[in-house]
Fold Drug resistance transporter, EmrB/QacA family protein.
Amino acid sequence: MAALEMTVVSTAMPTVVSDLGGIEHYAWVFTAYMLASTITVPIFGKLADLYGRKPILLFGIGLFLVGSVASGLSPTMEWLIAFRTLQGLGAGAMQPITLTVVGDIYNLQERARVQGVFSGVWGLSGLLGPLAGGFIVQWLSWHWIFYINVPVGLATVVLIIIFFHEDIQKQPHTLDIAGAVLLAVGVVALLLGAQTTGSRWLPLGVAAVVLTGFVLVERRVKEPVIPPSIFAIRSIVIASVASALFSAAMFGATTYVPLFVQGVLGGTATEAGGMITPMLVGWPVCSLIAGRLLVKVGFRPLIVGGLGLAGFATVAMALLLKPGVPLVLPGLAMGLFGMGLGFAATALLIAVQTSVGWEMRGVATASNMFFRTVGGAVGVGAMGGVLVARLTANPEVPVSAANALLGPEHGRGLSAEVLQQLSGFLTEGLATNFWIIAAAAVLAFGFSFFFPRVKPSGAPAPSEAAMH
């Protein structure tokens, strides 16, 4: 459901902007979602370790569905951003806890295969997302890209209530409220610093101070949101850094490649969404392959090889995505990118889960998801700042005029001079963003060489949770 949401929204956003206006807020529709999920991922992961996976997962799905309905009813871009934030709060519980449950139930060999199956489901949802998004936008309205979550979410709630049972030893716990607040404030300030087109130093300075305070608090409290002890494990440290970097590249590509196709190449919403499809085919296919290879070859070859392929694909993307390029080339680059991430992401996640026991698996999984989402949020936010800076380069041309580039007429109502300037600004801004995407992916590849040469352990996972 979360995968379907991301790809459907990416496909539909140019049309949403054409309807609601506010292209200067384009990136915030994505970053607000990722910001909210970034803040809550480690918090919900910790709560799942303390109180069980099931109640926290159901709560997250409920928030997500309320946010989905409200997003579909949004009358302005500002309201859409607010309700996307609510969606993100729910996603902060859904994503890490679902993956944690897999780690609870299955041993290493089974876990590798099941994570591959999960990626296959994610990929199928993502594959249908662009097609569904393009169809809904063209034949219904963009509002329905959010309403589509409701029947799927309600069915999921019923299945969890009936079939998922867990045996949790209830003990008194203390919640790290101070740590949670400091984490939230620090991440918000960090994102504002990445997104701001003017002075960045104040929010970045606030982020540095507050996040330093967060680290100090976590070292002293009894039950921290993110236990510092997990970062004494080298594989978790490298997985966290690599995940943050490849997520910045991934979310950047899924956000701005559709904008390039529709805004620069003049493609339709369906064609824009189609550029994400090759990535969403390559990822689950290679994730399934990685699940079968993991026990035989270990974590490191899959991580290094996968991130190397992803880095190559993004550099090719930055070189090839120019005005007039055939649609097959960005599609091919996105396919290779997805294949690389399919190998690497599966191995990184299972490596993190294998490094700790049940009592810390929720927070360890959540910490990996946290670094993925914070990397994606900061990356997309920074790229949004680059794009807005280019679109506002000429004060005589209002940035709101760029909304017309994304409509079905592709700016035909604008004067030739304004259309040429806006097209040039959009092309330049996106070209810079594609190089940022490439830099993030190549850096992730570089960090992968520091991953320790360890063989996966085949020890079975504890059976505190089970599906009946």
In short: The longest helix spans residues 358-391.
